[in-house]
Amino acid sequence: MKLRPAIKGSVLLEIIAGLLIILVVVLVVSSLFPSSYQGSLQAARMSGAVNLAREVLEVQKSSITPLNAGNQTIDSTILVQGRPANSKYFYRIDRDSAAGADPLMWKVTVQWEHSGKIKEIQLVGACSPK
């Protein structure tokens, strides 16, 4: 049984079209990995910032004489998808209530850089005046 030249050409076009579809799918899937890493990096940095703010607030609440503190810097290494990444956090502590107020409110503001933009979180907590 011999195939006619027209049939041979259409089979070749179908194979090429199938390979092109597979190539497009592979390129789309592979383009997701860098954005996935950036999303994981941002989530890890935000989680680190929240943990830092909690720690600072707990120290502030347990301090005998709590004070405002500005422009403190912390360098941290975090793991993102099994790879270490460096992060630099800047934080400050401000009183968030009037003097003599009960309870005394403190606000911790943590900033970090991600993709050329400054990100920020704020955490507010209360402690009794001492």
Concise account of the structure shown:
This protein is an alpha+beta fold. Helix content is about 45%, strand content about 35%.
Top keywords for this entry?
4-stranded antiparallel sheet; alpha+beta; 130 residues; 45% helix; rod-shaped; 4 strands
Please tell me about this protein's structure.
The structure is a single chain. This protein is of the alpha+beta class and 130 residues long. 45% of the residues lie in helices and 36% in strands. A four-stranded antiparallel sheet has the order 1-2-3-4, covered by helices on one side. The N and C termini lie far apart (99 Å). The mean pLDDT is 85.
- Beta-strand residue percentage: 35-45%
The residue ranges in which pLDDT falls below 50 over 5 or more consecutive positions are none
- Please tally the helical runs, counting DSSP H or I stretches of 4 or more residues: 1
Coarse structural class: alpha+beta
The counted number of beta strands is: 4
Order of helix and strand elements from N to C terminus? HEEEE
Main sheet properties = 4 strands, antiparallel
- Describe the strand arrangement of the main beta sheet, using strand numbers: 1-2-3-4
Shape: rod-shaped
Helix content: 40-55%
Mean pLDDT: 85
CA-atom Rg in angstroms: 28 Å
Q: In whole angstroms, how far apart are the ends?
A: 99 Å
Write the layout of secondary structure elements.
Elements: H1 5-62, E1 69-80, E2 83-95, E3 104-114, E4 117-127
Antiparallel strand pairs: 1-2, 2-3, 3-4
